[in-house]
């Protein structure tokens, strides 16, 4: 997978054998230590632009939605990320979404419908109405606009109450902007350790039309979206 780098942090891989979940912890430092297998509840993978928290569930909960719901405040970069996911760039600069924006990926082995809802005050009232239809929630945050983090935290936690198992991806977008916070800082600012027992990803992203290939963070995000919706929860 693109975007994975050893940066001297601790990661974990979930292994399921005989119905029991285990964690293989990999300690990355100047000298590689011997991996150890340890029973635990949470799995964590981290690099400088990627963090995956996966909680092992005692029972599989079948998905009930049909869409990947994309939410976030106005100006967070939701539309640009969707264009990058689907390679569907339009002419001119992306404008704030004034209602709903639906795009899809359709090919022989895959079909994903993304539904974006604008982040203005007037449109946030509709966010909850579409949560029951969601296979996964992708919440986009402008990582360079730290004064809005308290509002983002309130809105996100309020949404997640509706479904304690819905997979969550938080995109710390605009990593190419001055002052953009790291994924670790965003995780702390949004109190993501308190969002319940759910599969969660925190990924640093940025989008630019000036290069042919999307950034590694965008590629990672799309890959994990595909993996998540194809795996029963």
CATH superfamily of the domain at 67-229: P-loop containing nucleotide triphosphate hydrolases
What is the CATH architecture term of the domain at 67-229?
Answer: 3-Layer(aba) Sandwich
Main sheet characteristics: 8 strands, mixed
Global outline: globular
CATH names the topology of the domain at 67-229 as Rossmann fold
User: What is the overall number of helices?
Assistant: 6
Rg is 18 Å
Mean pLDDT: 74
The portion of residues assigned to helices is: 10-25%
H/E series, N to C? EEEEEEHEEHHEHEHEH
Separation, N- and C-terminal Cα atoms = 22 Å
CATH class of the domain at 67-229: Alpha Beta
Number of strands: 11
Low-confidence stretches: 1-45, 54-63
Structural class of the helix and strand makeup? alpha/beta
Beta percentage is 25-35%
Spatial sequence of strands, sheet with the most strands: 4-5-11-10-9-6-8-7
Describe this protein's structure:
21% of the residues lie in helices and 30% in strands. By secondary structure, it is α/β, with parallel strands linked by helices. It has a domain at 67-229: P-loop containing nucleotide triphosphate hydrolases (Rossmann fold), CATH 3.40.50.300. The strands form 2 sheets. Strands 4-5-11-10-9-6-8-7 form an 8-stranded mixed beta sheet, with helices on both faces. A 3-stranded antiparallel beta sheet has the order 1-2-3, with no helix packed on it. Strand 1 and strand 2 (20-27) form a beta hairpin. The longest helix is centred in the last third of the chain and has 14 residues, at 216-229. The two termini are 22 Å apart.
């Amino acid at each position: 997978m693109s975007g994975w780098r050893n940066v001297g942090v601790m990661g974990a891989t979930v292994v399921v054998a005989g119905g029991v979940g285990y964690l293989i912890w990999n300690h990355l430092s100047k000298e590689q230590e011997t991996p150890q297998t340890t029973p635990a509840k949470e799995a964590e993978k981290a690099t400088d632009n990627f963090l995956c928290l996966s909680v092992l569930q005692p029972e599989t909960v079948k998905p009930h939605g049909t869409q990947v719901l994309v939410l976030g405040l106005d100006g967070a970069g939701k539309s640009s990320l969707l264009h990058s996911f689907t390679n569907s760039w339009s002419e001119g600069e992306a404008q704030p979404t004034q209602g709903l924006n639906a795009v899809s990926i359709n090919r022989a082995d895959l079909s994903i419908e993304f539904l974006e809802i604008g982040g203005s005050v007037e449109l946030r009232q509709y966010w909850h109405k579409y949560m029951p239809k969601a296979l996964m929630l992708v919440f986009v945050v402008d990582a360079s606009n730290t004064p809005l983090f308290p509002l983002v935290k309130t809105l996100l936690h309020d949404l997640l109450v509706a479904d304690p198992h819905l997979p969550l991806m938080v995109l710390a977008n605009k990593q190419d902007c001055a002052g953009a916070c790291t994924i670790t800082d965003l995780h702390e600012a949004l109190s993501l350790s308190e969002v319940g027992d759910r599969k969660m990803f925190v990924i640093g992203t940025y989008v630019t039309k000036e290069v042919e290939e999307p950034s590694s963070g965008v590629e990672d995000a799309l890959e994990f979206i595909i993996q998540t919706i194809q795996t029963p929860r």
